[in-house]
Specification:
Elements: H1 11-19, H2 23-45, H3 48-64, H4 74-102, H5 116-128, H6 132-143, H7 148-155, H8 159-188
Length: about 190
């Protein structure tokens, strides 16, 4: 086959060429699928730049691992790879938001995405260890987004009590979660 491909090119022959290291075949696949995959990723992420970056990553990985890949459907493979990457990012963002709400200072970007669920479980575990009233105040503030005055009114206590309880809850969380941060980071450094 020459340097250009027709739109009716058989997927399997393209895949064989890509496995053999044919850059023109890969380039044709990239140009054919890239715009559609970016739009697909945007439906999940609502971020054009991030969507483009993720789709590019999928193609880079496909090229780098072309020898190992056993793909039956090119379109199916690409769509699933992009969707998985988007879903992992959305899970990661959820952990970051939960952690920010908990008010604990850690850069989650330092941790690999697959540690997110472990960390989220640990945060919830530590929150459960708080005394009942403090846990309730913490959740109302960080999870429900209520202001101290609103919490005080709902619980029939003073705003100062809410402030003190929140301070104690945050201190407890920092103390309990800091060793986990060190432990997780040491595994990957």
């Amino acid at each position: 086959m020459g340097s250009s491909f027709n739109l009716d090119v058989n997927e399997q022959s393209l895949l064989i060429k890509i496995k053999e290291g044919d850059e023109k075949a890969f380039e044709w696949v990239f140009k054919s699928y890239y715009p559609h995959l970016v739009l697909f990723a945007q439906k999940y992420l609502h971020d054009r730049d991030l969507s483009e970056s993720f789709v590019q990553d999928v193609f880079v990985n496909m090229w780098l691992k072309r020898d190992e890949l056993n793909i039956r459907s090119l379109k199916g493979f690409l769509v699933v790879a992009v969707r998985n990457k988007c879903n992992n990012e959305l899970k990661h963002q959820k952990v970051v938001r939960t952690y920010e709400k908990a008010g604990v200072d850690i850069q989650l970007e330092e941790l690999p995405h697959y540690q997110d669920e472990l960390y989220l479980n640990k945060i919830n575990e530590v929150i459960e260890q708080l005394p009942a009233q403090r846990k309730r105040i913490f959740r109302m503030s960080r999870m429900d987004g209520l202001k101290y005055r609103e919490i005080a009114d709902k619980l029939n206590i003073s705003p100062k009590t809410v402030e003190v309880q929140m301070g104690k809850a945050l201190k407890f969380l920092r103390e309990k979660l800091q060793p986990l941060k060190q432990q997780l980071l040491s595994i990957f450094l």
